[in-house]
Amino acid sequence: MAEPTKLLDLPVDILVMIFPYLDARSFVSLCRTCKAFQQPDVRLDSTYWSHATRTTFRVPNQPVVQGDGQRWQKLYKRLLTQSRVFTWGNNEKACLGHSFETYEQLSRLPPAMRRRRAMRGRHVSWPTEMENTRGLGIVADMQCGGWSTTLLTSNGALYTVGVVDGLQYIQRRPPYMQVPKVQLVPLRFPAGFPQPTERYDPCVATKEFSSGRSHVLSLCDSGKIWSWSDIERPALQIKLLGVELVEEANKRRRGYVRKVVAGWTKSSALVSGTGIVVWDPVVRGKDDAEDEDTALVLEHASVPRTMYQRPRVNERETDQETQAMGEDVGEVLSYVVLEGFVVFVTDLGKVFAGLITWTAQEQNIPDIIEVPIQTVGSTSVEDSPATQGSFHSFAVFKQNGEVLISNEDNLRAHWNSEFNTRAQSDALTFKRIPALQHTGVISVAFGDYHFLALHSNGQISSYGTEPQGCGALGLGGHGDPEGRLRGIRYRGVGGDGQLLTHCYTRGRHVWFEEEKEWIRFMTSGGHDPEEAKERLRMSINDINTQGEVSEWFEQQGNEWDKHPDLAAADGDGLGAYFALSITAAGWHSGALVLVNEDLADKVKQKCVVVDPSAEEDAESHNEEEPESSSGLPPHPPGAVASTIQWVNNWTRWFLGLPTSADPEAGNLPAGQGYVWNICASTQPPFVRSYYIVPRGRVLATLPPLSILWFARSITKFMSADRLLRYNAPFLHDPRLVDTDFTEPTNHGASPGKGLKYVWADDSFPRLRLSNGTEMPGEIPFSQWKCGRPVWDLDVQV
């Protein structure tokens, strides 16, 4: 009688087929039984852990890191308790899920503070955790729409905040056609179907979803396709006329829906045996009954030659035409739907594009063309494993570590050259951003004018432009001026923030640590603003200086949680904040982040020390006698009176008459000016109102403007240096300066009374620039933490 086959006698390729039948607890127990199963190729088997993570938590597949078993195992462990949702950018339609305040709350604030709160609520430049998400359970995925953000939980439920179709938000006063939701709302299914928040049902449990500009598509466990165009209305099930769609079938069976993608203005699905099908988003009419559950799509188009499926080992091609398709095009692995093109990647390592022709008379995708890939180094059939994109932009990932970025304009030019016999067909132009090449990029998310890149180490880098300084890049504490030290150049009347070319050499990373008040402290001039004022001026006015200074800050700010003293709290090596996925659309962004709260708290504690001078300062302050007459001007008048006074002073000065605060009239000493209420959160000096005193004459009382910024607009009266020279003495005169700015907690020097941050005594950096210029100052030159990069300033951005 033959001896029974032992488990250890089976080859590894057979074992990996058995492992997926075990849950995680059983698999870990099996690996502990013997040394053979403790080998990394078994214990950290990528096939098992990616399957376990994706099926347990509904995490979308990441083809670029499909073979990294250790990464998938760590994600599985931390997803159980540590997933957090962060958003940032434009919040005008409440799409961020935080930073909102009710009218009653705002009405209790003073008008000036009310305006600042409202502005910061609309534009959020720092990643902030979305409210009311921790009670949802495990958040597996998130995606941004044009005016919304949607979350997928591990039980298959979808939650949305904002407004799905912002074009329907056309009235500023009630009643709105679609009212923005400031807090997360579960997306509903029609009457007669169970809701995923109540119990599990494969017909409504979302396996994967996709957010377009103004609609959301869901693919459920059973294979049904659902579509939403309004948060408050239930979904509609999608049926395609003439296209077979089957449920609960083998994925190789004809009609099985493998993937759904919501494009900018189109919906789509990859259907076995049919290929990529595109149609207009369905919209539930105002008069449609709530119990209507299905929409039959009459007009749709299929992308040619996308229906091919590679046969299994024991199967053969059905005919020569199918075989030729497999050799020329291959099987679709991933695809994106842009505004006017469908772009897809096949298992042959080829990229193809099809032009969407959509008019009232014709809905068609007539043909596809191969997109030539400019390759650096060796190539293989696996060099292009994935593509991602949105709106007008897309990216192609290659296994050799390259990330190529292009847009619809280049696609259209290449398309026209392919079908114009008189034009020469050139290779499509791709951008190779240095910071994305061979840096472990696994995902790219595109907004209207910006994009994010997710790296395999869990870091996020940001690129592009944030319109109106809305914070979509996620780099600035409150935008301008803090964003300047991160490499953002603010231009135009609207204050559009564009990332400098210097930042594309190594990238600018999104920081999640709340304790990085350090960047605000440095924006205020550091320990000695007076000594640093010339370096601050250079960093603001000179593009090259700003770019290099921002790189110095980037190096200093990265990896705060990698200190040797914190290694014990970072058991898995993922750090305090590890980004799992990224998303972007319109003018806002988001990320699903694994947060090691124990490590994050230790990092925060390490940044705070006791301030030994606090007690001494308090005692000396108590001993001081208040002066009976300070000589200060009265508190600034109200808005109307201030405006009238401002116009009157300018008019009288222009006519050569004494102004209301003229030194000749005895109101002010000649050659001096006074400062009221210096604000804390902006570059020094930044004042609510102040006097300009050229040649001993009060010119005017000015509204809130940065002195450095305002000086550029009045150069015919006074230079920036001269203006600083007039006002610098008042920055340190306790009789003249309000405590708003000098209070350490207001400019990032202290977290509270009796404490200070470890950087409270640091100075604004002084660098030797790459062009040989030495920044002025009295402090020693600052050192580069990771060396000064070799700038690639010729890169296309």
TrEMBL record:
Residues 613-627 have a biased composition (Acidic residues). Keywords: Repeat. RCC repeats lie at residues 83-155. Residues 611-638 are annotated as: Disordered. Pfam families: F-box-like. SUPFAM superfamilies: F-box domain, RCC1/BLIP-II. It comes from the Eukaryota. InterPro entries: F-box-like_dom_sf, F-box_dom, RCC1/BLIP-II, Reg_chr_condens, Ub_ligase/GEF_domain. Residues 4-52 form the F-box domain. This is F-box domain-containing protein. It comes from Cryomyces minteri. The lineage of its organism: Eukaryota, Fungi, Dikarya, Ascomycota, Pezizomycotina.
